[in-house]
Specification:
433 residues; alpha/beta; 9-stranded mixed β-sheet; binds (4S)-2,6-dioxohexahydropyrimidine-4-carboxylic acid
């Protein structure tokens, strides 16, 4: 039997070290056994002393830019970045060119993901045709396609029309789908450049008020409850949003939410540098918002971390603040940022990290075979993490085609030692396997 024998690993960072035997893809790609002193003839042995094993990470929010902006990212380069970051599945956002609003485009992205082979790619379908917010896209056809789309989002744009949002929520119930809303009231954010508050007032930049996010989240929670459907809120960024989600969950409504790594670590004070690498949508908020987001993630009000990996070509990012496109790359730094914001602060242990970066996002996206416990018979989707290591982020060393990381030169805790997709190594020692 081929595959891997990971010697002396701590599963979810808990208990005594054990050996973990993963069958290779030709032998089913499952976890064969966990235990002390395992023997596995023919398997490659990896000394995992001191390492933590987590289920492969699942990202609900990745921009792969293909088709249309292959100069910024491709499915090949974006999923390579994902594997190096510890991900075994990503959801590819629909704001491509052409927009992923038909069965044809989502199938194209899904096939490109299969060809690349670095991780599973689940295309997100657009809610409205061309992301224009006027007519519903072919949600059913995308759900029935080979890509089996379950997550629908106009991300980058808000489905601001309440009737369209209601119709989308009603429609996706037929196939147990979910509408992932980019919550941004458009009129309140016209021309917005950064968080509205003391820093924007000082810098003279047009502000993006917290209320523009919170008003849409509150409305959508009410709509989801009214029609009995599933709502997922993308990149929650304010303390008030956490409060509204806490209230909606207390009612038992089917509402889930994500927070990005950058909103867990960085604040709007960075806008004072006028370095567009810190320009992102929703914008970086205040230290009080960061604290509330961390607390919300720790207590489960926010279900998961999603990267909002948003690669941009140099000419779109290295320009003046006002003209630069919003977004940051994030797949290769997500785990390190979460370790700094949540693990080093004692807010989450490694089991909590596995829950928020694998189990829950897989469940929200209805992704089979991902986010599963590391137990015999389960798919061997695994990330091995060195919790004691640190690494300094070098933009030139990223596998992503784009360089717009806000962490250049910053030392982040942990290192991804290996990623396994159904028993096959996709990343090993910081390189593609
Ligand atoms: O900063 C962002 N960039 N936020 C979004 O919602 C879209 C994304 C992008 O596509 O670049």
């Amino acid at each position: 039997m081929s595959g891997w024998l990971l010697r002396g690993v701590r599963v979810l960072g808990q208990g005594d070290p054990v050996d973990l035997h993963l069958a290779g893809p030709e032998d089913g790609g499952t976890v064969v056994a966990l235990g002390a002193g395992l023997e596995a003839t023919g398997a490659r042995v990896l000394d995992a002393d001191g390492l933590v094993a987590l289920p492969g990470l699942v990202d609900l929010h990745t921009h792969l830019r293909e088709p249309g902006r292959e100069d910024a990212e491709t499915v090949e380069t974006g999923t390579a970045a994902a594997a190096l970051g510890g991900f075994t599945a990503v959801h590819a956002m629909a704001n491509t060119d052409p927009v992923a609003d038909t069965a044809g485009v989502v199938e194209q992205v899904w096939r490109l993901g299969q060809q690349a082979g670095h991780c599973d790619v689940h295309p997100v379908g657009a809610v409205t045709v061309g992301l224009a917010g006027e007519r519903l896209a072919e949600l059913g056809a995308m759900a029935d396609s080979a890509a089996r789309v379950r997550v629908f989002s106009d991300d980058g744009h808000c489905v601001s029309d309440a009737v369209l949002m209601r119709r989308a929520l009603e429609y996706v119930k037929a196939f147990d789908g979910v509408v992932a809303q980019h919550a941004q009231e458009p009129r309140l954010t016209e021309g917005a450049q950064m968080n509205e508050g003391a820093v924007s007032a000082r810098l003279g930049l047009t502000g993006w008020p917290a209320a523009a996010e919170e008003a849409v989240i509150a409305r959508d929670c009410l709509l989801a409850a009214h029609v009995g459907s599933r709502l997922h809120v993308c990149h929650v960024s304010t303390a008030g949003s956490v409060e509204i989600l806490r209230w909606a969950k207390s009612k038992g409504w089917q509402v889930t939410a994500e927070v990005t790594p950058h909103h867990l670590l960085l604040t709007d004070v960075l806008a004072a540098t006028y370095d567009p690498v810190y320009k992102v949508n929703p914008p970086l908020r205040t230290a009080a918002d960061v604290a509330a987001l961390r607390e919300g993630l720790a207590d489960g009000t926010i279900d998961c971390v999603a990267t909002d990996h948003a690669p941009h070509a140099l000419e779109d990012k290295e320009t003046e603040w006002g003209a630069a496109l919003p977004g940051m790359v994030g797949l290769e730094t997500a785990l390190g940022v979460v370790a700094e914001a949540m693990v080093e602060t004692g807010l989450l242990d490694w089991a909590g990290v596995a829950d928020r970066l694998s189990t829950r996002p897989a469940r929200i996206g209805r992704v089979g075979g991902q986010g599963r416990p590391l137990a015999a018979g389960e798919p061997a989707n695994v990330v091995l993490v060195d919790p004691a290591a640190r690494r300094t982020v070098d933009p030139a060393g990223l596998a992503s085609r784009s360089r717009n990381t806000p962490y250049a030169g910053r030392s982040l805790p942990t290192r991804v030692v290996a990623t396994f997709l159904r028993g096959r190594a996709t990343a090993l020692d910081g390189a593609l396997a």
